Model the fold of this input.
Amino acid sequence: MKHIVLAIICSFSMLGMSQSENVTTQLYDSYDNFKETSIGKRRIKRADIQPLIDTYTANKKFKVATVGKSIGGKDLSLISIGTGDTNVFLWSQMHGDEPTATQAIFDILKFFDSADFKVEKEAILANLTVHFLPMLNPDGAELFQRRNLLGIDINRDALQLQSPESKTLKRVRDSLDADFGFNLHDQSTYYNAERTDKPATISYLAPAYNYEKDINETRGNAMKIIVFMNDILQKYAPGQVGRYNDDFEPRAFGDNIQKWGTSTILIESGGYAEDIEKQEIRKLNYVSILSAIYTIAKQNYIGISIDEYEKIPENDRKLFDLKIVNANYELMGNMYVLDLGINQIEVDIADHNSFWYSSRILDQGDLSTYYGYETLDASAYSIKQAKAYPKTLSTIEEVKALDFKQLLKQGVGYVRMVPIPGKHINSPFPVHLIGPKYKIPEFVLEPGINPTFFLEKEGTIEYAVINGFLVNLGNKNVSVPNAMIYK
Done:
């Protein structure tokens, strides 16, 4: 009889999984109908989401409450919907520079406010009450920095509760006695799925609640939800899912919330090729989180095996923005072969609304166990130093009139100006701008320098690397997001 019951449960579970897959496909295909377009870039602030919160405050479908304030006095809002007995709690941006899931939360709220997916929403809202606490660290978001104004990492303040943001998170979790929790973050774009060249676009963790890493029902349920979400993402980002190391961190909120009895799922949004503003990753968050909420409502996760959780590749950190392999490099009369790992590093503009790039060589030598978002085999090429344009120019208009493709083909990577325009903090051209007294340093490749050089084959320059961006001089147009200014 037990075998018959188990078979029936598994059959219903498989049926439920099939239904969830259909819903997932529909969610993905219809996403543009629900994307909250008013917050389309990463550097969002509390002021950007306040009009949206005001809209939901006035909407009778939702319950909105101010549940705390940040150190800087900004409101912390909880937005709730549903009438079910099972409480699902999602919080985002406890690190101020990790906004992807905050955007996805407002996409999900727009979904709940729509007239579409009526049957699925009824199933969710009758069985669950879903609570959203977006942007837990609004002061950090204002400065686009990880920590709060106290200078602490909120995610390491679960024991001391030194900051008001931490106290709010603990108080809300306790008041809800949440059954499921989604701890929503961004991670470095340089994480990859272990032993692959695939970026860890999304990484998961069912945090341990003790040093022994025991698995009780609470943590086991979190693992089942992660297995379910991983299956979804494999359809849209195959091989691009990672799993965090589950060593117990006694100060962390995720580990403690798991310990306090909430099945906690950590979601980290990483990198995706040609998705600088993480809008495709935002979409994947929307689809996978909503699908998970639906499977919680339908209880389809119950029959999922947690054995699949350990099969998700662990996170590794072996990605570069640009990897150049087997380049020939002359030093002190000898020729060497080097791999170069280059990262295009963002520098915040003063208002924290945008950024520019100041790239660096991160590593060089044998990088055969590393990968790149972009990779060039330079085995037929020699590295050549960039030189300065022979004339000194006096206006931006004169620089703009230059034929940059021809300059790069001639090995020119610097243009001297007198004076350097004061309002510019970087060069908007595919060459560096240098001041009248700036001396181009002796060319020695080493980690930490700005990657600017040329790749020559049989006497012809075919590629330029300007501020860490690879330019194929065989293409019709040449451009880089920005170069540098050296005064």
